[in-house]
From TrEMBL:
The keyword Acetylation does not apply. GO terms for molecular function: methyltransferase activity. InterPro entries: Methyltransf_25, SAM-dependent_MTases_sf. Keywords: Methyltransferase, Transferase. This is Class I SAM-dependent methyltransferase. The keyword Transferase applies. The lineage of its organism: Bacteria, Bacillati, Actinomycetota, Actinomycetes, Micromonosporales. It comes from the Bacteria.
């Protein structure tokens, strides 16, 4: 079957099998070809994040939350002495290890991160859609605990497309299709483009104990140097 996206990308059949799997199993299956799909974080977003972080720091240890195949590690590597990636897909971590052999990788659920004040900088790209709104507080609380006082969390948040654009209606259609799929098929595959609007994300980060600022496409959340937030 003709491969989608690029000659090295997944076929339609492979994507269908992935979509009918759990999130973890689906990404395990997709991992070897993930970087040849549009789902990989675009270099433009990585470059914009790197630019926003230039002049901030210094950063000793960096953490990529939901690191996938390790694309976001390219933002951390030039800025941190030590970098760690965490993801719950063993397949994605295997690809990330091959791409970033000097990094440390941990397999864990991002809703229960196993870190305590070990990092100065955390980043996350393209992961929010995999968390239901009720799960975001646990995600952000775990990042808060993982950061040292004064640590920074840079979270890529896509700009919503104009309501009259094709992209807007494509995301509406995708989210609707996923809701129907999850209503009739188990295990669920959680991926929604419209479940994490910027105001809600900022509110949840603030509730988790961060001070928050935004630049286009990016949220910068700082853990206060003397914060005693739980």
């Amino acid at each position: 079957m003709t491969a989608l996206f690029s000659p090295r990308g997944p076929s339609l059949r492979e994507l269908c099998v992935q979509a009918l799997s759990s999130v973890e199993r689906g990404y395990d299956l997709l991992a070897p070809k993930f970087d040849h799909t549009p789902f990989r974080t675009p270099d433009s977003i990585l470059d914009a994040t790197a630019e926003a972080l230039s002049g901030l720091g210094p950063f000793d240890a960096g953490l990529d939350v939901c690191c996938g195949t390790g694309a976001g590690m390219s933002v951390l590597a030039p800025r941190c002495e030590r970098i760690t990636g965490v993801d719950f897909s063993a397949g994605m971590l295997a690809q990330a290890r091959a791409a970033q052999p000097a990094a440390t990788f941990v397999r864990a659920d991002a809703r229960a991160l196993p870190f305590a004040e070990g990092f100065d900088l955390a980043v996350s790209f393209g992961a929010l859609g995999h968390f239901l709104p009720a799960e975001r507080p646990a995600l952000f609380a775990g990042v808060w605990r993982a950061l040292r006082p004064g640590g920074l969390f840079a979270l890529a948040v896509g700009e919503p497309p104009p309501v009259l654009s094709v992209s807007h209606w494509a995301t509406v259609g995708f989210d609707l299709a996923m809701r129907v799929r999850n209503a009739v098929w188990r295990p669920p595959f959680v991926m929604y483009y419209r479940a994490s609007p910027l105001p809600a994300v900022v509110a949840d980060l603030t509730a988790a104990g961060f001070t928050v600022s935004t630049v286009p496409g990016l949220v910068l959340a700082r853990k206060l140097a003397h914060s005693d937030h739980p």
